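At this stage, I put together one protein's amino acid sequence and its C-alpha cells, which the following lines show:
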Amino acid sequence: MLEWSGVLIHCFLLKHLEQDDVAPEARGAETAMNDNMQSLKKISVPSANGHGNCEVMVGTSGYSYLEWIDSGFYPPETKSSEMLGLYGGCFPIVELNYTWYQMARGDALSRMADAAPPHLLFSAKLTRTITHERVEDWREQVKLYRHGITSLKKRLLSILVQLPPDFDRTINNRCFLAELLDRLHGLPVAVEFRHRSWAVDAVFSELERREVSLVTVDEPDLPGLFPTLDVVTNPALFYVRFHGRNIQGWRSGNMQKKFDYDYNEGELQQWYEQYLSSMAHRSDRGIIFFNNHVRSQAPRNARLLSSLIAENGERLVA
C-alpha cells in the first residue's frame, strides 16, 4: 500500500449521459457509453519536493477515431465535430495528433479550443516535417509552429517533440536537437526518444538544465528501443506515454497492429507501483496519455489506471 494521502478526484461527466437523466428504456448503448466514460479525471498526490501536491492528469493520444463509435466509447452516429466535446466529458487533457500531421494554425486551434469544454487542456505534437522529414526550411517551420500554437494560450501544457526510432545519439543529431530546443525556448516542451542511445545521464542533465521534460514510455521490450525509466528532468511536469506492448505488431509497419494492445489491471498496477509513485513524489504535475487507440483500448485503459491510482490512495474526494 503506497502511503499517498489527499488523493483528489474531479469527475467531468456529460449531463446527458448520467444515469439519472436517461429513461430506463432509452439506456441501451448510452448506458454502455456511460460505463466507459465515468472515471476520475484529476488526481492530486502529495509531492516530496516541497511544493504541495502533484496533480496527475490522464487522457489519450488523439480523440477523433471513428472506430471508437463502433467499439462503444462514443454513441452511435456521433459526428467528428462532436467528438472533442464528448471526450472532454471524460478526461481533463488530450494529446493532439492534428499538429503532427499538419502545421499548427492559429485560426484552427482557436476554433477547436473555443468549441472544447473549458476545463480541457492540451498537449500538442510538434509537426513531423520538423522532426521526421527534417525539411530544409525546418527552422522556418518552427517559427510557423510557434506562431500557431500560441492560440492555445494557458491551455497548452506541453509541446511533444517525438523523435524517430533511427534518431540515434550522433554528433549531428545532438546538434540538431540542441538547436531545435533553443528555437522552442520559452514554450513548455517534452522530448520522446525512441532510440536507446539517448538513455544516458548526460542527456538527462542537459534536459534538466533546459527545464525540458523527458517522456517516459511504455512500449515493447525490444532491442534498441528507449527503456522505461522513472527519470524526472523537469519537476514542473512529468510526461508519460503508453504505446502498448505488442511485440509482433510493433515493427509490422501497420499502425493498427502496432498499437493494438489492451493493458490488464496487473500490468497497470505494477507500473503504478514501480514508476508513477516515484515520479509523482518528485513533481508538481504529471500528464499521462494512452496511445493504444485500437478498439477504444486507450480510453478504457486510461480509466483503469485512474481508478487504480484512486484505489491506492488513503483518502478519496469525489
Notes: Residues 265-280 form the longest helix (16 residues). The radius of gyration is 19 Å. The longest strand covers residues 53-61. The chain has a mean pLDDT of 84.
